[in-house]
Design a protein that fits this description.
Elements (H helix, E strand, L loop, with lengths): L14 H7 L16 H22 L6 E4 L15 E5 L7 H8 L2 E10 L3 H21 L8 E9 L7 E10 L6
Amino acid sequence: MLEEGLIFGGQVLTTSDIAVASGLAEFGDPARISGLSPNLVAQARKVIAGLIDDAIDRMKTAPGDIAMILVGGGSVLVSETPEGVSEMLRPEHAGVANAIGAAIGQVSGEIDRIYNIPDPQGRAAALEDAEAQAKAQAIAAGAEPGSVEIVNIEAVPLQYLPGGATRVVCRAVGDLAMAE
């Protein structure tokens, strides 16, 4: 939580504290971290850089270097080009990109359930039920009812269970309902 960081009056050393101590960011109360050892700050930055390198390596879908777009509050943690990155891009207003993404993101609902489907007619009814439940969950989460649509549905027969057991996973999304 925000208030746990030292620069915000908390008792926990956070990456925000390290970013401020390193001069990469200016927020909170820097006086609260003035006693941090430069060695500790350097070690923490090295650990953070290693975590970032590992995350980039895990996300890449092909070998070779890729461009990195830095957005959101965590973008202040990256000052040097990580391994596997060809260039680092910081768009204007990068610090609020997460908020923009959250504001335009869609609301979802998902059902993951086992149905007993003994015949083809039962399959259609089960899929229809899963779709209705996923849509209802999206609406309950705040989606505008008229905008909700099914984006994914999977039905996998479970050979190890009797009675035509089938695992159905269904996901619905819709635009955020705006209060009038």
